[in-house]
TrEMBL record:
Its EC number is 2.7.1.26, 2.7.7.2. One of its GO terms (molecular function) is ATP binding. GO terms for biological process: FAD biosynthetic process; FMN biosynthetic process; riboflavin biosynthetic process. Pathway: Cofactor biosynthesis; FAD biosynthesis; FAD from FMN: step 1/1; Cofactor biosynthesis; FMN biosynthesis; FMN from riboflavin (ATP route): step 1/1. This is Riboflavin biosynthesis protein. It is an enzyme of class 2 (transferase). Belongs to the ribF family. CDD domains: FAD_synthetase_N. Pfam families: FAD_syn, Flavokinase. It catalyses: FMN + ATP + H(+) = FAD + diphosphate; riboflavin + ATP = FMN + ADP + H(+). Residues 183-307 form the Riboflavin kinase domain.
Length: 317
């Protein structure tokens, strides 16, 4: 996939581009439906499939106090867009100045003059331009004026639930991790750097853990999870705890992951933790011994769950 990090870097129009536009947080099943339609139109037009997105997210600029935690980091979002078979991704640096562009200006200056759009594919509720003044009716009117088509994709429902980034965030925070994965089309994941933890896992409890620093991503509901862990392209099984460790009375939440059958120093490494199934709520124990007994049960249950998946445990090669 060709990546254009700023629209001003685009020296000439693209080749008969079919375009979709959005934030695409999570790159979920609804987004995938848009991308599939864009690819279909690109084939018909013998042109390129194009995704236009924004960085930072508009909410981070316009209303940072109300900005949500995100399902995907910006780099991961682009990886997922590329994996979906899109030809070109255009990342527009979002600013207050950009937010002041009118709906007509956005279409004429960016979509028509710079990109040369032939077809625009949008969701059923798409809005655009200054103060979200533009709607699909205006987009179709401008399409007639400037010579591009407009195709809308209906809402996607799975299991009776509307697929949306907001719904997925709510499911993650409610601990309904499997349902979130269904709407995403893959397990929810958090990528972060291994940082110095509280040194209790291996020293005190006998189960070494990697402490992951979470930045901006949606935290899961506190509890214990069966997880997959990706490290430098290798996939391992694991058991993770997110929360406050009530047995020890921590005041700040942490994500601690025990990687099954793994030995080695992980400090400074980047891990991706994929949440497969929620095992239980956090519990307060009377001391380390009963906590260790429960951790053994959690690890056994995680192994059982992951054994039914295509997870390559380190010990089994």
């Amino acid at each position: 996939m060709e990546l254009i990090k700023n629209i001003t870097n685009l020296s000439k129009s693209l080749n008969n581009p079919a375009v979709t536009i959005g934030n695409f947080d999570g790159v979920h099943q609804g987004h995938q439906a848009l991308f599939a339609r864009v690819r279909e139109w690109a084939r018909k037009l013998r042109g390129q499939s194009v995704v236009i997105t924004f960085d930072p997210h508009p909410m981070q600029v316009l209303s940072p106090q109300n900005s949500p935690r995100f399902i995907t980091t910006a780099p991961r979002k682009l990886e997922l867009i590329a994996a979906s078979g899109i030809d070109v991704a255009v990342v527009i640096p979002f600013s207050r100045e950009f937010a002041r562009i009118s709906a007509h200006g956005f279409v004429k200056d960016l979509l028509v003059d710079r990109i040369g759009t032939r077809m625009i594919v949008v969701g059923y509720d798409y809005r655009f331009g200054r103060n979200r003044e533009g709607d699909i009716a205006l987009l179709k009117e401008l399409g007639t004026r400037y010579g591009f088509g407009v195709d809308t994709v209906s809402a996607i429902h799975l299991g009776g639930r509307l697929v949306s980034s907001t719904a997925i965030r709510n499911l993650i925070q409610d601990g309904r991790i499997h349902e979130a994965g269904t709407l995403l089309g893959r397990p929810y994941e958090i990528t972060g750097t291994v940082v110095q933890g509280r040194a209790r896992g291996g020293r005190l409890l006998g189960f070494p853990t990697a402490n992951i620093k979470i930045v901006d991503q949606v935290p899961p509901k506190p509890g214990v999870y069966a997880v997959e862990v990706e490290l430098e392209g290798q996939i391992f099984g694991g058991a993770a705890n997110f929360g406050y460790n009530p047995t020890f009375g921590d005041s700040e939440p942490s994500l601690e992951v025990h990687i099954l059958d793994f030995t080695g120093d992980l400090y400074g490494s980047t891990l991706t933790v994929r949440f497969i199934e929620r095992l239980r709520d956090e519990m307060k124990f009377t001391g380390p011994e009963p906590l260790m007994a429960q951790i053994r049960k959690d690890i056994s249950r995680a192994r059982e769950i992951l054994s039914g998946k295509d997870v390559r445990m380190a010990a089994s090669g």
